[in-house]
Amino acid sequence: MSSDKLPHCDLLIRGGTVIDGTKAPRFQADVGIARGHIVAIGDLAGHSADEVVDAAGRIVAPGFIDSHTHDDQAVLSQPAMPFKVSQGVTTVVTGNCGISAAPLRDGMDLPMPLNLIDAPAQGRFTTFAAYLDALRATPSSVNVAAMVGHSTLRGVTMSELDRQASQAEISEMRAHVEEAMSAGAIGMSTGTFYATATQATTEEIIEVGRPLSARGALYVTHMRDESDRIMEAMEESFAIGRALGVPVVLSHHKAMHTPNFGKTRVTLPFIEETMKHQCVSLDCYPYTAGSTMIRTDRGMLDNRVLIASSEPHPECAGRDLADIAREWGLSKEEAARRLQPGSAIYFMMDEDDVQRVLAFDETMIGSDGIPLGDKPHPRLWGTFPRVLGHYSRDVGLFPLETAVWKMTGLTARNFGLHGRGTLKVGQHADIVVFDAATVRDAASYETPTRVAEGIDAVIVNGTITWQHGVHSGARSGQVITRRDKVAA
Ligand code: ZN
Ligand code: CU
After folding, report:
1. Could you say which ligand is closest to the alpha carbon of residue 147?
2. Class assignment of domain 63-292+346-415?
3. 116 alpha carbon, closest ligand
4. From residue 115, how far is each of 103, 118, 150, 388 by CA, in Å?
């Protein structure tokens, strides 16, 4: 706290109220930044800096970490990342739901949902190292911590995906995981919910994931089932974590479809109990609708469906599937098939479940945003301000300190992102300055790309990246790799 020997600051955030990302109560302090790091927190009156951000009446918090993204290609093809930076996000975790940008082969066909991450800007990456090198050579505006996706590995290894992998294919996939780990991937994800991996057995996932063990890297999963058989799916996820001896992250935890509404009353205690014996965490987005590719199976079309994007019918983006079907004189199933390939928004959760999962102490905030098309799910632009404004301030689900922790300190701890997620001297200077009274998501299902309100300034590795609603053009994001247990 002492400011006596304060080195020269590049940037000074003056007069704000610090919420430090640990859940500790807020306090008044200035924050001094030099060479991309926080060098002082306290009363820095009398000290000067090259640049000053006036934070009077504002909250100064660690930059938000989006624990669940599909930004793998967006960080290269849309490197300014306005949909994340404008929310206060300074770090994204990529490679979720079994899908990653590497390793791929040139010319290979990407079946759904491997094609959900947008078209490659720089050609395909045949190794994970090549992907991370490209990110280092052309940084984006946010930091990236990347995982390798098991469905992508199946796609690059197997000739057809509607079957179990052979021993030879498992070895090949395992070699890819090994390569990704040594390149710096922080974990491996699966998406056994999707046709590209439904045939993968528990054993296949464990054997492919072997290289995670030595490094304590994460196993992150979009589970086989988030509806009728969600308990069995959780058992499988925990069993994989135990077999590999690694932390498990349950992605976008939810109970899908009307008959399962209320099930989080059972799933959350099960998670809590399991946490006593093994390392488990979970994330969630603050909406009752999900979004993924257009699919017609497993009751996906039972409730309201909004088309987010459609390759054959781009004009249908933003419209209700029921209206399109009526206009075309088709059933919803037939209309959906004609709109494929594309993505859609499915209203399939209960508000009480969403609030219960959000309020669960250990739940991290992750957007699961899909950076595609003009009519994406509003979570892409609104997740973090929605938790701060709507759920914390307006609904009163938890104090602002807890809200911030769920998107910073907790996430950094669970994902092993050292030196980030809290405001302390020595940490990387990833910082967001926002107005607790006015922060809110402006993106809705009708206007899904509207910029959030109340986010004053966003600083990434010490560089102002967003201020007063304008992107500075800075691209100071870094690649965050898994820190070896032995080496530093
Ligand atoms: Zn998913
Ligand atoms: Cu996802």
Report:
1. 2
2. alpha beta
3. 2
4. 14, 7, 14, 32
Helix axis angle for 321-328 and 332-339, nearest 10°, is 100
**Domain spanning 293-345: which superfamily?**
D-aminoacylase. Domain 3 (3.30.1490.130)
Mean pLDDT of 355-371: 97
How confident is the model at residue 399, as a pLDDT?
A: 98
State how far the Cα of 236 lies from the Cα of 226, in Å rounded to an integer.
12
CA of 223 to the centre of ligand 2 (A): 11
Give the containing element (helix H, strand E) for 9.
strand 9-18
Counting ligands in written order, which one lies closest to the CA of residue 197?
A: 1
Q: Note the ligand closest to the C-alpha atom of 369.
A: 2
Residues with CB under 5 A from ligand 2 (ion): 96-97, 368
95 C-alpha to center of ligand 2: Å? 9
> Which pLDDT belongs to residue 300?
87
Poorest-pLDDT segment among 121-135, 148-162, 268-282, 316-330: 121-135
Strand boundaries in 95-217, DSSP class E: 143-149, 187-191
User: In CATH, which of 2.30.40.10, 3.40.250.10, 3.50.30.30, 3.40.50.300 is domain 3-61+429-487?
Assistant: 2.30.40.10
Cα 61 to ligand 2 centre (Å):
26
**What distance in angstroms lies between residue 188's CA and the mean position of ligand 1's atoms?**
13
Strands of 70-186 (E only): list them: 89-94, 143-149
Do residues 193 and 222 touch, judged by C-beta distance below 8 A?
yes
Instruction: Write out the residue limits of the CATH 3.30.1490.130 domain(s) in the chain.
Output: 293-345
Q: How far is the CA of 42 from the centre of ligand 1 (A)?
A: 41
**pLDDT recorded at residue 485:** 46
Tell me the per-residue pLDDT of 37-62, one tens digit each, with 9 for 90 and over: 999 999 999 888 999 999 999 999 99
- 3-class secondary-structure state, position 301: coil
Please write the tens of the pLDDT for every residue from 447-486.
999 999 999 999 999 999 999 999 999 999 999 998 654 4
pTM as predicted: 0.96
Q: How far is the CA of 243 from the centre of ligand 2 (A)?
A: 24
Q: Which ligand is nearest to the CA of 377?
A: 2
Mean of pLDDT over the chain: 95
